[in-house]
Amino acid sequence: xxxxxxxxxxxxxxxxxxxxxxxxxxxxxxxxxxxxxxxxxxxxxxxxxxxxxxxxxxxxxxxxxxxxxxxxxxxxxxxxxxxxxxxxxxxxxxxxxxxxxxxxxxxxxxxxxxxxxxxxxxxxxxxxxxxxxxxxxxxxxxxxxxxxxxxxxxxxxxxxxxxxxxxxxxxxxxxxxxxxxxxxxxxxxxxxxxxxxxxxxxxxxxxxxxxxxxxxxxxxxxxxxxxxxxxxxxxxxxxxxxxxxxxxxxxxxxxxxxxxxxxxxxxxxxxxxxxxxxxxxxxxxxxxxxxxxxxxxxxxxxxxxxxxxxxxxxxxxxxxxxxxxxxxxxxxxxxxxxxxxxxxxxxxxxxxxxxxxxxxxxxxxxxxxxxxxxxxxxxxxxxxxxxxxxxxxxxxxxxxxxxxxxxxxxxxxxxxxxxxxxxxxxxxxxxxxxxxxxxxxxxxxxxxxxxxxxxxxxxxxxxxxxxxxxxxxxxxxxxxxxxxxxxxxxxxxxxxxxxxxxx
Length: 503
Known about the structure:
Number of strands: 26
Radius of gyration: 24 Å
Shape: elongated
Largest sheet: 8 strands, mixed
Number of domains: 2
């Protein structure tokens, strides 16, 4: 059965050059992605980009004294990490992006500030597809990269205990009014260039008709990015989750441990229902898809305040049934709109780390991932858990990790057949951030054989470590509603493979 795809508005086409305003400043921005085979040569990439720019002109970076403060955010998948430090290659790419400018006929000069980063891959071309390999670029004028040269954000990437990250500021989530800050941890590049992660700022200059020259370079540990704001009102989350159960009230739990939930009016060990459902999932998948290979299933749960259960009619949401005629793909797509609203309603998504078995008081315990936002070190994890534990007795039922009286809704990754994946919604061109599978092995990145493809008006990168979402008042992006009745602030981590945020 071919699944009915969600509203096209979620993945609508955007425009090559869009205008946005921060305060009173008018800012023109552009974006570009190159999907590359793993054995692509640097010269072939430069030549292909030049040919493309001649045939399909984009918005050049006008480097002149009158237009200073031009910026480029340059992301690569791990296989191309070393390219970011090749001055000849970077100079050629920047020249191609800047095009012919007026300063080539004068002695004037202009600077380009560049942020270079390595992510775990590029966003897939289709929903539920594999991450791509290559380069993805944002370019335009300040403030794409605010405070790029802030001394507090500089630091060595060779520190083995601390990875670098970038944070994207975008429109509010549906149902919210505050801008969204999404933190994306960068890739581990130890085996590519010896760095725990790769993030650095550089300054490039061109005088007259000479090529770009690198003048300054410094390593960074973090950076905020204001990507182009497309002609949409909100940031849309696409969360591919298969609902396994209706909401279950938490009867007993502490910290990040759930001991009992209520099923049909009776207290029940938290893991008991999952222990009976998961084997059925394996059986159904094997019967419906002969190519299915059983593998460990990731299980997540929503932690939901009681009022939200009623507001969103969550007991009416269709869940997995062994006898259902709907495929897992269809059920997960149908639930996407509801799940996007849960995030805006201060619900949190937690991966279940362990559970089941035991006896006595330990029978059927479930351990939830305590991390709700991005932390750059193990010490941050400890401090965050202590804070959550201290909030366990808060009178506000939405605080703390596990609070009796709140609800859990259990979900798993849906299984899509190869045919369903091929017929799923295209994801280009967009501006998007995604989650790649986090296996012990390297991410299975899809390579477009020997073809170099240039995708205009597209930017997208993924992280194996997930995305950390935070509703914030810190940035004046404007909103789609009044701040007179603001929704509550929230933080949650989304580490569900193939999840995507459309900015």
